[in-house]
């Protein structure tokens, strides 16, 4: 069977967030899926198979990190939709049945793909003890992202602070259900983005995720409330970066980005 590595939220190879994509006829046992994800050793590997016509979704979709399965993943969904489009397996809008519900991805005329995800609910909370020390930066505010993704969204002072973070990953692992989203406003919005972020998920085997679609279901309402606009552009990443366009639509958030296939091969095991 074919396996592909797709860089998501970028239009250039070797940037954005790489994801493995494996299209199947049906899901094999969980042990095999986890072994493949560990072998690929990227933030997430997506596994998908077609569903019978006439249902509420077209494909079943699962995402696994090298150590566990996750409830929501944006960049690997984008990567899967890109593979379906470029291989001719789907056109227009494709609907995925996933742990977090039905997700839709629509191929746009400009070559981007727009995904329809549930908006995360934000609740202001006190900063957990040890958070500032683990991040190595003073904290402005902290919000819990609740059930959808289970992260702490942590507002920092400025873009330079976010870019220069060198966290203590072992300390961060015990502070939230999944991970920590560090964010700040763009220092110069004329450069083409409104806010910056970096995402750390050591609890699920990912010290830093380069570009996290699911995190933007929380970043979108957070920054839309502060900047007064429903449509924004986020820049995420440390060594690798990518661009996520967001559009807040109440209980749903639209995430738009490019993707490019960089590796295609045969899975033999």
From TrEMBL:
* Gene3D superfamilies referenced in this protein's UniProt entry, alphabetically: Diaminopimelate Epimerase, Chain A, domain 1
Q: Out of the domains of life, which is the source? A: Bacteria
Reply yes or no: does the keyword Acetylation apply. no
Record flagged with keyword Isomerase = yes
What are the alphabetically sorted keywords of the record? Isomerase
Question: What family is reported?
Answer: Belongs to the PhzF family.
**Know the name of this protein?**
PhzF family phenazine biosynthesis protein
Q: Which organism is it from?
A: Streptomyces coeruleoprunus
């Amino acid at each position: 069977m074919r396996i592909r590595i797709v860089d998501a939220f970028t239009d250039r190879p070797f940037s954005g967030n790489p994801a493995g994509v494996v299209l199947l006829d049906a899901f094999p046992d969980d042990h095999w899926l986890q072994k493949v994800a560990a072998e690929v050793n990227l933030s997430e590997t997506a596994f998908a198979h077609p569903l019978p016509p006439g249902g509420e979704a077209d494909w079943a979709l699962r995402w696994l990190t090298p150590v566990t399965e996750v409830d929501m993943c944006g960049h690997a969904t984008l990567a899967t939709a890109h593979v379906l489009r470029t291989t001719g397996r789907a056109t227009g809008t494709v609907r995925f049945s996933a742990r977090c519900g039905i997700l839709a991805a629509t191929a746009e005329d400009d070559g981007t793909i727009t995904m329809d995800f549930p908006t995360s609910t934000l609740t202001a909370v006190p900063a957990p003890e040890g958070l500032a020390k683990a991040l190595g930066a003073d904290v402005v505010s902290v919000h819990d992202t609740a059930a959808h993704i289970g992260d702490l969204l942590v507002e920092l002072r400025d873009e330079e602070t976010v870019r220069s973070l060198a966290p203590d990953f072992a300390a961060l692992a015990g502070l939230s259900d999944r991970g920590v989203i560090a964010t700040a406003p763009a220092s110069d919005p004329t450069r083409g983005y409104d806010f910056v972020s970096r995402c750390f998920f050591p609890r699920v085997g990912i010290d830093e995720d380069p570009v996290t679609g699911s995190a933007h279901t929380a970043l979108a309402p957070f920054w839309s409330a502060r900047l007064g606009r429903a449509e924004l552009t986020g820049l995420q990443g440390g060594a690798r970066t990518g661009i996520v366009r967001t559009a807040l639509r109440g209980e749903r958030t639209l995430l738009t980005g490019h993707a490019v296939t960089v590796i295609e091969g045969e899975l033999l095991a």
